[in-house]
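User: Fold this one for me? It's Histone-lysine N-methyltransferase ASHR1.
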Amino acid sequence: PEKGRSLVATRDFYPGEVIISQEPYVSVPNNSSVSAQKRCDGCYATTNALSRCSRCQVARYCGTACQRSEWKLHRLECEALSRLDKDKRKSVTPSIRLMVRLYLRRKLQNEKIILSTVMDNYHLVEALVSHMSDITEEQLVLYAQMANLVNSILQWPEINIKEIAENFSKFACNVHTICDSELRPVGTGLYPVISIINHSCLPNSVLVFEGRSALVRAMQHIPTGTEVCISFLLPDSKL
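Assistant: Here's what I get for Histone-lysine N-methyltransferase ASHR1.
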């Protein structure tokens, strides 16, 4: 009971087999104002030919295919970011942008512009644990400040500041660092179903990424009825 929710195998899985895969509900590349190497907002690739969104100057794309794949969400994001002055736009960190995109995607799903599915809906985000009662007062103040910044970007009169702050707390315990094949961080994503998988120091499965897609693969035979566990820690790249 103290572990909360978990993922349990309903059939046998064998080494290398994909147990579950999920696209992110929302994700952002690691493109902060101090990042030396910028990444495409669509595929997270690095290239010398990245083009900035001409209006907001925040999103970058490697080509028209990635730009089109992101357009439904970025159209609203672009409108919001474009209202900010240049200096304030620089203060939009990847985590702030991730939260803005969370609310914009919820809006698009509510309006049926982006379809909701069993593995892709805001109710899964609502079900995530925030651990708000465990965080320090200093952290609460920080979340409140970040929530106010998100509010100033979205400018929705009905938005709930307390809910945004709680969602930042959910991000702290539930988002995943998206890594490339060499385990280099390339972005951050929220995978609400995969987030219910618990940590183990002796995991029976591993979380890997193919682009932005998250896949949990078995590392050993996992019999029916066994809890699926991963390690929340990245391996040391020097080993």
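One thing worth pointing out: The chain has a mean pLDDT of 91.
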